[in-house]
Structures are given as C-alpha cells and as structure tokens.
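Much of our argument rests on the idea that a fold can be written as discrete symbols. In the encoding step, the backbone of a single protein was reduced to a row of integers, each denoting a local shape. We regard such an encoding as a compact summary of how the chain folds. The record that follows shows the chain in one-letter code together with its fold in token form:
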Amino acid sequence: MENFCNYFCINWTFSIICCIFWIFSLAEGGSISEVVGSTVILPCKDESNETLVQLTWKTNGTTLFSFKPQVDLHTSDEATRRNIKITDSPPNALLIEDVQEFHSGNYTCEINTDARFLEQKWELIITGKSENVLMITVASVVPCVCCLIFILAWIILHRVRIQRAEAHSPTAGREREEDIYENCLGMHVNQQRSDNQSHCYQQRPR
C-alpha cells in the first residue's frame, strides 16, 4: 500500500506540473497569438550597456531590416511587401498593422555588440476570430481541469492516509481484540446453552 501511495503521488504531481507548464507556455516563452486585423509589436530589447555594432530583424531566415549606427536603415523588399515597419518607441521593435495570416512565422532579432552576439526569437501565430475564441476557451478550461485534478488527488491521498493511520493505531488493534473476545464469549455461551438443553432432554423421564 505504501508503494502504491508513493507511485500515485508522484504521477499526480508530475501531471499537475505538466499542466501548469503547458498553461504558462501558451502565454510566455516568445510566442504571441493575435487575431487577423489586429496590430502586433515584436520588441527587441538590448539591456546591455555594450556598444551596438549591428541589429538585424529576420523572418523565417529572410532579412527584413538591418541597422548599423550612423548608417541608414536597410529595408528589404520582403518587409515592404508584408507591410512591416520598425519603430522608434519602443526602439528597434517590429510593427505590423492589420496583421494577416501570412504574417505567421518565426521572427528573430539579432544584436551584435562589441563584446557578444545576442538573439531574441518570437513565434507569431495569427488566427481567425473563431479560432481565437477556441484558444481562449481552452486556456480558460485547462486551469480549471488541473485544479479539479489536484483537489481529487488530494482528497484520495488524504483518505488513504486516514485509513492507514486507523489500521496501524493501537485503538484499532484493541477494538479488533475486543470484537474477537466478544465473538468467542458469545460462542462459548451459546455452546453452554446447547449443552444444558441437551442435558435437560436426557434427564426428562419418559
């Protein structure tokens, strides 16, 4: 029973952790989901105090923008075709107005400094309104399901622990001994009654 409880506890804990990780991975981790027609801003933050040498934005491996200090911003034909712009506030961020499904994909901001190379990646997911409603519904239902699973697991484990505690408690042992003693005493009394009745039948004159 103890091995079963440990195995059960480990499995439920692992399931809950996976659910929580999946929930938060939908909201964070470089993934952005938007509806068709909305405005999207993909930031590119350089939090270091190092000197910037070059900054490049790419989508699916294709260069969109390339910037060097004291040099004009280079805008590719792909950025123009997709109607993608680069903003000053926030600095070096991509701006996509009236976003469409063909804007979906992987976007990468590459930062070259005089000391190191930095890279920030974003996954942009563009969906229709009905699909977005479905994603919102799933994101709302999954936390509730995980909470219910956690509550049920806690209730089951709590009951198992109570049963194990009652089974190993001295009071339970004494109660079992008293029940056995009472059963044996009752059997002895019944045996005596049956012996007395048979003796009376034998002594009765014919």
In short: Residues 55 and 111 are 5 Å apart (CA to CA). Helices lie at 2-27, 77-81, 129-168, 170-203. The chain has a mean pLDDT of 76.
